[in-house]
Design a protein that fits this description.
heterodimer, A: alpha/beta, 5-stranded parallel beta sheet, 3-stranded antiparallel beta sheet, about 40% helix, about 10% strand, globular, B: about 260 residues, alpha/beta, 9 helices, 10 strands
């Protein structure tokens, strides 16, 4: 008589079963979607880049007193609106959105001098636009010298950010892109949309495939970890659908394809590298279990409640995996509430001393 | 600890006894930065021949309690009033432009380090490079965001106004990490002069005369020489305020320009 073995599903936690982890729950109570590999603590310097959804990470970190590193801060004299117009404070450096793996690889290769950046600018009505970030200045640059000097500044900021950071949050956005046929240079946007002019002889559409994206991401990860071996990478996939597709297919299926490929690459990289993790913000927003509740009526924009739920989930999973983070956050929160800006009060004292001495 | 106050020099006393017929009534207005001119006066460093010099202002947070109302500066707190009673007891309730022949606004929250330092660091190839479009936004914003610059513009409609922004931070006090992070220590006198000229031109449009930070007080691209830093106290941690020697240079520059205007 053969001995009976319990099957491998017996004894698994409730998160392993759809019925208990999803079906039986209010969507907002679905929890433990992520088992983080590494802690993100307040003392850590976090840098963010990628698709537009990445900027929510920086805002949430700053709002909670975490150490988001802005390697290219706005000059203090700009108003908040002006700084935003010029894309300061959106990501850790002024690259604008980095939608694809190839664009990330290009930026890192230029920053760490593995490749020469292109000396190309798009001209519109006397203004110059950087093909790597055409929307970075609302009206482009004054001339090519201005464009290239500003580019050198952003490359320096990338270097500084990578060298000084503890965690790099990168949000993967798109597979579809436009490249120069000869040089292979990938543009941030299709030439002729925001600036430049489209030339079918020079510019080609590419819908990046799983293998190519994984190769580019691996190369990018190598540059990052060669530069800063202690750097941890946290990947996310943007839940924001494509604005338009150039594949000839329907934008909805193109979105599905694109995001699925990116999600698969992110999962593969997280499985392959111990210092790379994947945080499922994409699933929290897009999964049918959430019934589309986090999308605006256009079914594309993510509403603030969605962003907030994503970030709450991020911190909840972190605190669950690393309880000391929760204790630390509580302590720090109390300290901040009772604290006072020391520099301002010290400055007031100094001013009084000067006056007392002169007129007292 | 405050230093013992020196007596006013013979030269200053003599100046104050000169004939009042053609005397210039001149007011130094500002926040704690007016102290450097007062130090200069107390140390006998000022040539005040033909000048009746007065001070008006308040230090630190109490400077916020001075307001421009209907073309006059008024005081809105007891704390500021108490300060003014020490500085200028006869005018502790307010100050109008018609009360003097000219005004020197000094400090007044307009800080050279906030505009010139990032501009001087913005050189092609440097991490601090700012695009032309960003740089173009900064000068108007620097001036317009300063409440006291706007007030100076109102006074300048009636009397000559000279404006001396707070000088660069003091060398040897400001940390080397801060210097490395923000100051282009290779910036040249010509680069500074180009920026001062732009500021002067912008101020001139508001009928205000800029008083530049004297070149001899500048070191390491965008810092004030330690020899011109305040020597008040023994902590050596005041990176902002200046001494009497600095105050004398500023006031003399303002008075020279005032006299040139009168001619």
């Amino acid at each position: 008589m053969s001995e009976q073995h319990p099957n491998p599903y017996i004894g698994l936690p409730e998160t392993a079963f759809w019925k208990t982890a999803v079906a039986a729950k209010n969507p907002l109570q679905i929890s433990q979607l992520w088992q983080p590999k590494f802690p993100v603590a307040r003392k850590h310097r976090v840098i963010t880049a990628g698709s537009c959804f990445a900027q929510h990470f920086s805002r949430a970190l700053v709002a909670r007193g975490y150490g988001w590193l802005d390697a290219e801060p706005a000059p203090k004299l700009l108003t908040e609106e002006q700084a935003q117009d010029f894309n300061y404070g959106i990501f850790s450096f002024r690259t604008g959105n980095i939608y694809t793996a190839r664009m990330l690889l290009q930026w890192l290769s230029y920053a760490f001098e593995l490749e020469e950046p292109p000396v190309e600018g798009w001209q519109n009505e006397g203004r110059f636009y950087d093909p790597l970030r055409p929307g970075i200045e609302p009206n482009g640059f004054a001339d090519m010298d201005d464009l290239l000097a500003s580019r050198r500044a952003v490359l320096a900021a990338i270097r500084r950010a990578v060298l000084e950071a503890d965690v790099f949050v990168f949000t993967m956005g798109l597979t579809e892109c436009w490249r120069h046929r000869d040089s292979g240079l990938e543009f941030a946007m299709c030439p002729g949309t925001l600036a430049g002019s489209f030339d079918p002889e020079q510019h080609e559409f590419v819908n990046q495939r799983f293998v190519g994206i994984r190769r580019d991401m691996r190369a990018a990860l190598k540059i990052l970890q060669d530069a800063n071996p202690k750097l941890k990478i946290l990947l996310t996939v943007s839940p924001v659908p494509l604005t338009a597709t150039a594949t000839g297919g329907h934008v909805l299926t193109a979105t599905s394809h694109s995001k699925s490929v990116l999600r698969a690459v992110a999962g593969e990289l997280a499985a392959e590298f111990k210092d790379v993790d994947y945080f499922p913000s994409y699933e929290i927003i897009t999964h049918p279990a959430y019934r589309g509740m986090f999308y605006a009526p256009n079914q594309r924009s993510v509403v603030p409640q969605g962003v907030n739920h994503v970030m709450e989930s991020f911190f909840a999973c972190q605190f669950e995996a690393f309880p000391w983070l929760a204790r630390q956050a509580k302590r720090e929160g109390q300290k901040q509430a009772g604290g006072k800006a020391p520099s301002a009060s010290a400055r007031a004292v100094k001013c009084d001393e000067e006056f007392l001495d002169a007129f007292g | 600890m405050p230093l013992a106050k020196p007596t006013v020099s013979k030269k200053s006393k003599t100046a104050s006894r000169a004939s009042s017929a053609a005397r210039l009534r001149f007011c130094v207005f500002g926040d704690s930065h007016i102290a450097c001119v007062k130090h200069a006066l107390d140390q006998g460093l000022l040539d005040l021949a033909g000048v009746d010099l007065e001070f008006w202002g308040a230090p630190g947070p109490r400077f916020r309690d001075l307001h421009l109302e209907e073309g006059r500066f008024v005081v809105t707190s007891d704390g500021a009033r108490e300060q003014l009673a020490k500085i200028n007891p006869e005018r502790s309730s307010g100050l109008g432009p018609e009360e003097f022949d000219g005004f020197l606004f000094i400090g007044c929250r307009l800080r050279a380090s906030e505009y010139l330092v990032p501009m001087l660091a913005s050189v092609p190839g440097a991490p601090g490079y700012l695009s032309q479009a960003v740089r173009d936004l900064m000068l108007p914003r620097w001036l317009e965001s300063c409440r006291w610059y706007r007030a100076a513009r109102e006074f300048a409609k009636q009397r000559p106004v000279f404006f001396s922004p707070a000088g660069f931070l003091n060398d040897e006090i400001v940390s080397e990490a801060e210097v490395a992070r923000s100051v282009n220590t290779a910036a040249t006198a010509a680069e500074r002069e180009a920026l001062w000229a732009q500021i002067a031109e912008a101020m001139q449009r508001d009928n205000i005369q800029l008083i530049r930070q004297p070149e001899e007080t500048v070191t390491r691209g965008g810092l004030t020489c330690a020899a011109f830093a305040t020597d008040l106290g023994d902590q050596g941690d005041d990176s902002v305020h200046k001494n009497g020697a600095y105050g004398a240079l500023i006031l003399h520059q303002a008075l020279a320009e005032m006299r040139a205007l009168q001619k």
